[in-house]
Amino acid sequence: MPIRTGEEYIQSLRGRNLKVYLFGEQVKEPVDHPMIRPSINAVAETYDIANNEEELASAESSISGQRVNRFLHIAENAQDLVLQNKMQRKLGQLTGTCFQRCVGMDALNSLHSTTYEIDEKHGTNYHQRLLDFIKMIQNENYVIGGAMTDPKGDRSRGPSEQIDPDLFVHAVDKDDKGVYISGAKAHQTGCINSHWIIIMPTLRLTENDKDYAIVGAFPVDAQGVTYIYGRQSCDTRSMEEGDIDAGNAKYSGQEALVILDKVFIPWDKVFMYGEYEFAAMLVERFTCYHRRSYVCKTGLGDVMIGAAASIADYNGVPKVSHIKDKLVEMTHLNESIYAAGIASSYQAHKLKSGVYLNDDMLAQVCKHNVTRFPYEIGRLAQDIAGGLVVTLPSEKDFKSTETGPLLKKYLTGRKGVDVENRTRILRLIENMTLGRNAVGYLTESMHGAGSPQAQRIQIARQMQLGYKKNLAKNLAGVKDDYEEPTENSEYFKRVFKINDKEQ
Amino acid sequence: MPIRTGEEYIQSLRGRNLKVYLFGEQVKEPVDHPMIRPSINAVAETYDIANNEEELASAESSISGQRVNRFLHIAENAQDLVLQNKMQRKLGQLTGTCFQRCVGMDALNSLHSTTYEIDEKHGTNYHQRLLDFIKMIQNENYVIGGAMTDPKGDRSRGPSEQIDPDLFVHAVDKDDKGVYISGAKAHQTGCINSHWIIIMPTLRLTENDKDYAIVGAFPVDAQGVTYIYGRQSCDTRSMEEGDIDAGNAKYSGQEALVILDKVFIPWDKVFMYGEYEFAAMLVERFTCYHRRSYVCKTGLGDVMIGAAASIADYNGVPKVSHIKDKLVEMTHLNESIYAAGIASSYQAHKLKSGVYLNDDMLAQVCKHNVTRFPYEIGRLAQDIAGGLVVTLPSEKDFKSTETGPLLKKYLTGRKGVDVENRTRILRLIENMTLGRNAVGYLTESMHGAGSPQAQRIQIARQMQLGYKKNLAKNLAGVKDDYEEPTENSEYFKRVFKINDKEQ
Amino acid sequence: MPIRTGEEYIQSLRGRNLKVYLFGEQVKEPVDHPMIRPSINAVAETYDIANNEEELASAESSISGQRVNRFLHIAENAQDLVLQNKMQRKLGQLTGTCFQRCVGMDALNSLHSTTYEIDEKHGTNYHQRLLDFIKMIQNENYVIGGAMTDPKGDRSRGPSEQIDPDLFVHAVDKDDKGVYISGAKAHQTGCINSHWIIIMPTLRLTENDKDYAIVGAFPVDAQGVTYIYGRQSCDTRSMEEGDIDAGNAKYSGQEALVILDKVFIPWDKVFMYGEYEFAAMLVERFTCYHRRSYVCKTGLGDVMIGAAASIADYNGVPKVSHIKDKLVEMTHLNESIYAAGIASSYQAHKLKSGVYLNDDMLAQVCKHNVTRFPYEIGRLAQDIAGGLVVTLPSEKDFKSTETGPLLKKYLTGRKGVDVENRTRILRLIENMTLGRNAVGYLTESMHGAGSPQAQRIQIARQMQLGYKKNLAKNLAGVKDDYEEPTENSEYFKRVFKINDKEQ
Amino acid sequence: MPIRTGEEYIQSLRGRNLKVYLFGEQVKEPVDHPMIRPSINAVAETYDIANNEEELASAESSISGQRVNRFLHIAENAQDLVLQNKMQRKLGQLTGTCFQRCVGMDALNSLHSTTYEIDEKHGTNYHQRLLDFIKMIQNENYVIGGAMTDPKGDRSRGPSEQIDPDLFVHAVDKDDKGVYISGAKAHQTGCINSHWIIIMPTLRLTENDKDYAIVGAFPVDAQGVTYIYGRQSCDTRSMEEGDIDAGNAKYSGQEALVILDKVFIPWDKVFMYGEYEFAAMLVERFTCYHRRSYVCKTGLGDVMIGAAASIADYNGVPKVSHIKDKLVEMTHLNESIYAAGIASSYQAHKLKSGVYLNDDMLAQVCKHNVTRFPYEIGRLAQDIAGGLVVTLPSEKDFKSTETGPLLKKYLTGRKGVDVENRTRILRLIENMTLGRNAVGYLTESMHGAGSPQAQRIQIARQMQLGYKKNLAKNLAGVKDDYEEPTENSEYFKRVFKINDKEQ
What we know:
4 copies of one chain form a homotetramer. The first copy, chain A, has 18 helices and 14 strands.
């Protein structure tokens, strides 16, 4: 029976034989660990929203022929991609953190076209295997983690050139049942909260890297998998009594190092094996989807703006012109991100397999703004919040009979404002600019789906300088110097084609 | 017979009895004035493109039942609005300047819904009059100028409170044939190059301002109309011999002060008269369309990037990392503008009259970025270009037998680069950052369709702080402080509605 | 016998009967509390540096006639102010945090001139009392805390208009021995680590606020004083085993809420009492000194840049052009702050009492850049560091026999780099951008010595628009419109005076 | 008899047999050419200010033993350098343009130490020759132009590797009287307005470039020198009737291409000849002085701010919060430049020859901000000014009896404001953001004294990452990884040395 609700999802995670390490010890039941639980709660919201806002967060799949969670849906038109963005923003608003399910969604969509095109060239049957896998997970309503980032070791060397071959995940053995892989994937979002993990290569591969050209799915509790939990700023506040100092007590993100020691993948779950020349296509399509998925941060931005507006209100200064102007600026920056994201989705085109791919240039632009604007939005929120955001005493001091009344007396703001509520909003701002969810709102905005330079490289590839130089030369009256543009991008072709309903 | 081509358009402007003043004298034939002609050439491109790229720049109109120039088309779906943006970018690329025809397009579209809603309330028949007018101009393929900005005089006073009532255009008389208006409209884009002008109020009006609540159309050469031409930086270079120093010799923008002295508008061309409470609606819808129309500047941005890339190439430094990085940054900023524009168009909704209106918040975001990014793109272009952009000798020095050979010898760049071509590109960069088309690329980007503060006011109106405060309070665990949001915006309702194909 | 070394200083703090609350309980001995100790270590450095770099960090005082710690020295020339800045930068480099001793230094210097001018008007003898106090603390080499920021309650009301009079510190009683004060001072830097506290009003006062016009000194362990410790991001990591996860295990800042319940100040330690009209002068001079003191953040910036350069090195990418370019940008921003600080100090002038005051406009400019640039420097450091900065497992996992070897295998970077060292640098970057010292490097940079808007108000007061308008009108040939400037600033008089060695 | 006043200076330029080309023709008398004259007027101000503000703009020279114009003075202490900056700001305020005399000042100062150190190594007597030259020009009070920038041709090749050897200035012959040089110097500021030109190499030279290692002085009207005048935006407005449209009718800058055809330099005016290894020293010291000299732009910034404040006033909106806030931002940015400049001058050190050299790192920081902030200040000025700044009709239209009254009627602003005055201020803003002085305020700010990348390279050389990495490693507890810093900069040694009065 498929998982239906957030609550059922949480139940589904119990009792698995996971090897999760945290603070040097193996965690008995991650579901009940107070530092892990908030990340599970965030994923649970992706189930509840599919019930509460069905059109936004679920879709009719032509694969399983039923209504499925949008995170498991293959985009059948541009509108599906736009709706992904809208759902992402909404979940960002509801959780104020990373809800960890986009990587899987974007992995499935990018594999849809890549497997199709591998099959086309090599006569393999990866695409059908993938469709079967998708049908199964749609039926069960599973969480899929997508694992791409290898540790990489010496960055000046490729996978097969490393001293230790395990620094990139690779096939170490195979038999008639399947493939065995070893290696690790670093800072894997929501891996422990998933049911299945899809493993993928992280960069363009050469012929020497054939063993590294492996894509496949395995259950999170497969034999040979070890998880080492990543620390976050202020993570242990989740283990303290009370719920104020955590800032956002219910939700957080999750990143872990996943170590694979001869993990088995049966043939029917293998979606690439040796076709190294398709690694680049997979990575580029995945990052194209995924960089646009960072529209989720506009949902967090909405929370941040709301928190700043609330504290301005509690401080009694909501109408002061410089405060209002900063809220406008925060909104402007936040919507600039959103605009680039949905523009990328709207300007999608259909690939051979039938899946839609959003516009690549605009996806880069979206993510690149994400590496800048949340930092400025956070800075402005701290500006509005005032110094108390980093000097508030602890919740225990507020609760203490000795210090509580003193704090209540002296930390009062505008008349009618409850000191605890004011404290809660300040803690939320701390949470999102310095604390646990600053990891998701700031640093992950910087590095998730590729660091800023990765976007600049992609923009450089698509900026079609030859085309633009001819525009300039034409207007300047330059003679005998027309260049035949040899661009490796179809950006302007996409911009100026008329009917964006066809490929 | 309708105007078909740019050439026919230029012919259509000849022989009109226009009262145009420039340098203190009346201009005999504007079409032949070397300082005016480049602005006419830019409009002519809007005709040629409709032939050359039919799907982009023309559309089937359900009003006249024929294929019409897109600038005269009423948007019948979101795609029409998106295509406006794409056509605008393309024309920006082809002309490197303001092609002056968007104001009319946006005026017609905003009048479509406003006249409909006035009629609905007042039982008037403005909408049908407008449809008849549109049918006529579609048949003739005319250029329509939209005139909104009044001189305003003392900005702390409304129209009816000014010492001189003419500081805002108003009806001064009427009879059974029509209305007579006086006043002026400041910096009117392309007015002299139009066939008809639609006059509109410039701001929210009160009951005392009834005479100012006037919308109507009159021919550009109507009796009582005087045009005083606005100077542009380096404008007289168009009157010098040669075509190099102008930078972009063929194209420029045009702004003039239009003075109206009892200009007659027949009743069938009057589209509002006295319904002051609809002035704000008209202004807001017009600016909503028009702020998004500034996507045209991304076309100019493409030229600017192309010019910078060309000069880097001529200087022999196209691969230098900081040069390439600046070209990436320019592209990123340019596409950020584009993304916001088309996102606004895609996220359109249908109004009662059947016309589509693009998203208002995202239109503000688009224009607000336009008030910032072209300046930075221009700064980076000057950075890449080097100091020669402002120290080059004149074209005459290049042509002189005495100095020409010296300049050719000393201003040589990378081997194989023609000195004249290098000079032409430098002059184009000067043209767009300091010269004639810097007016369009920079200052008009700042002030056209409303200054930055105008966008901030609109963003403030739509930022829905009540909604966002509740998001923050929910996550922070704030108690007993839920606010009932009383927003005057439906932004988030539009964001999260599912089917953007319906209203 | 005076305190000579950091070690002696730490000893001097023991055994005091302080009422310090933390996590709802009274702290037995703050010196030995692992969460408090790092802040004490930072102050201890201010002693050791006076021995190690005598010319930088100590000075001959004409008050006590001996060489004293520079933090207790009254500036006798512009060079003294410059050296304050240089010492501040050095201490920032050595501790990577707030060393908490500038407030006292700036308070003493601003009181020097203010008491002199009060006496001049009122015939009081505050100045001599202050000199006696300074002589005493110079002899003992004490740490002085300066307490200015009141909780303020409803910000739309002044001190005497609050519902609760205690929301600003005020005199509640007096007798022939002295004055008794009540109230609180919020987020007091280093208060628990001080020997004496000087209390000062926080804003311009009116005649109704006479009781609030109180300045005086009392020992930190005076009767009636309660301290409630402020939480910092990641503060409890200081209480964990190991020293890696803290990032900067040795040093941190300190802020506490100080509550005063009828605290006694003897007459000879009272430096203002009732002369409300001098409150504004004191506040303005204090902030003038103190905003320039934020040059200390350039020392933290140096650490941040060093950490970013180190991690780039460990990752094997120190020569990559975009990395190097980001390090250049960080340096440029950091030195822009430094330049404004020392320019303000150099352009000092002598006040009536003989003390030197740095330039006010440039002090505002310095601090205003501090509210912006550290955030950008921190953002760039995170960019260079990579995602590991927020996903590293805990120190315990590194130490564990089960997970340690796995981490060592997979988190290796460039050959020859020790994984622990790489981890330590990543934790330091986390510490300064999200963790404990992000409080000092970011949020305190925003709000310490006044929030951004406070600087903008001061800049507005001094920008001398009248003078500048006349410059423009002169060049534009404006007629009959010269304005007699009535500026309340002498900025340009200071800029253009020739001999900055005299008043 | 020495030149005493601006008027005498202008007379001194008459009747020289200069070969100046402009618009393809030789100019008869540059002094009387309306397009050239404003640049002469700007230089004339450097004479008058020495009389009007003696302490600011003149100094006692120990070389000639008399009071001399500060532009001819060798800096004998740090204060002399600071006063250069203050004089530069003042002249920027008085002229609103480039007054063209800093290059010579900075050339003389950098030659003072360089000739001394060449002599020290090679036993030459360049230093004494230079002192004799300086004494002569101090006695006559001449304007000295410094010529550094060669055309450079193919930038990937050095001087001796060019196809055409003349692309860098070089010695082509010599005899017992002196040396003969050929080549060209591009965009030479104020060259035609000078009495003497000092020629210098433009970059680091190798042994093969010996002939290019030539420094010497020759009179501006020496045989074999040809000047080709550089065009500026809106330059011909200076040739129109009236004085309004020019914006700043009295003052402008000047740049020309100087071509040298076997120009003779007698031995006693040769200050380097063949000592190629000192070219880098000369260039670096010159740019160190000169990049800090860009403090002059803060004087132009003051004019720009004044113009923006004036137009806000004329428009009736001087108190509007966003307008005021923009004026604050403009001031903040302008003073950030100033602070870096004077900080560099204050933090000077003495060189072997006795001359003082300002701090190099801070000079780079100053200039680097100059490549950014004036563009933003200009953008904000355009924002405040409104669209009229680029759409105003011509002065002739204002003067015409037909259109003048209409313009007066419709371009009125706040009551009591003269339309002509309002127009004049708008034209000044146009002049400084798009027109003739935008060349000096914007593009020259970008490229003068080296483009942005040149500063970044110098910052990179001096950022002392080794020192900073050790700071970080120390705090992070990194083990066994202390680096011995091998910096090629003494920046931090200068920062932390105590007595900045000695070397």
